[in-house]
Model the fold of this input.
Amino acid sequence: MALGTDAAIDLGTSRLQIYVSGRGIVVDEPSVVAFHSDTDELVAVGEEAYKMVGRTSDRVRVEFPLNGGVITDFALVEQLVAVFLKKVSSSMVFMPRVVACIPGEVTEVEKRAVVNAISTCGVRKICLIEEPVAEAIGAGVDIATPHGCLVVDIGGGTTDMAVISLSGVAALRTLKIAGNNFDEAIMKYIRKKYNLLIGKRMAEEAKKAVGCVYPQPTSKTFRVKGRNALTGLPQWADITSDEMLEALIDLGMQITREIQEMLEETPPELVGDIYHDGIILTGGGAQMYGFDTLIAKKTRIPVRVADDPGTCVIRGAGAALKYIDELDNDGIGQLNPLIGEY
Ligand SMILES: Nc1ncnc2c1ncn2[C@@H]1O[C@H](COP(=O)(O)OP(=O)(O)OP(=O)(O)O)[C@@H](O)[C@H]1O
Ligand SMILES: [Mg+2]
Done:
């Protein structure tokens, strides 16, 4: 029997999520840190820091310390994790044991950075789990049956595609095209068409409201506000979902093509399974209107968006916490619930 509580952590490019056994998801905040540029003193983290994006003065800087799913600023990530892990563990009697999610395609150095960032916060034990595996569990795939499935995680920094089979991850592709690129494409489009400069947060809001990669049955509009690139004066424009489609379809197609290429390289038996069960979309970006239709049309394979796609990885890692006892107490093991090997 485990003493105290266990936690799962997903350090994403866009969001930091923490799941605590017996409680569920207790932290789901933007992976953002605000700090004084001269003293490096922490000003805010998470949601509070995200509100400062594009609104900072010379003295306060706001940074996303992860990029493309990997840590780019170690000191900032450490502070980000420390704030939230402390919040969570202060209510625990014992130091927590942690399962940390790592992207499918990372180097040993990048893996080590994740472990270090978390272990400095005082945890008893850390295990790693590959995101595609966690994701499949979170999406409700029955990983105990010998069956192949294809999960596609459209995150903030990367789109990770993985074919999962009995032995684990059978094939993996990572594309550095995801949510952030969609935001940038929207900013670029609006600047070009309306001479209107908008910030990243405004672009993201517009994307969530009317963004699409397949024509919407009824056109929707969203008002974006910013500043005229020439005059510098405040300006707004009503952006339609049709315009969004124009701005975003290229990126949507690049992701779709990557899935097609991956399928071409997948062993026939597994493709048969995938064909039968369909492709599963997860990650915050899977909520974009039309991704399922676009991919289904191009691959001719049914596609389903997982329930609550933005929390699939963390829920799956949370469910994998029950295997943490099987790992010995020292060292950093890697959990692979698929083959019961730790
Ligand atoms: N309704 C929506 N429509 C389109 N995109 C959305 C929607 N909701 C969230 N997103 C996008 O999903 C992305 C974040 O997804 P997620 O939280 O899965 O990423 P992450 O795990 O932090 O990143 P990564 O896995 O790449 O490291 C952001 O770009 C966000 O704008
Ligand atoms: Mg992610």
Q: What stands out?
A: The chain is about 35% helix and 25% strand. The mean pLDDT is 90.
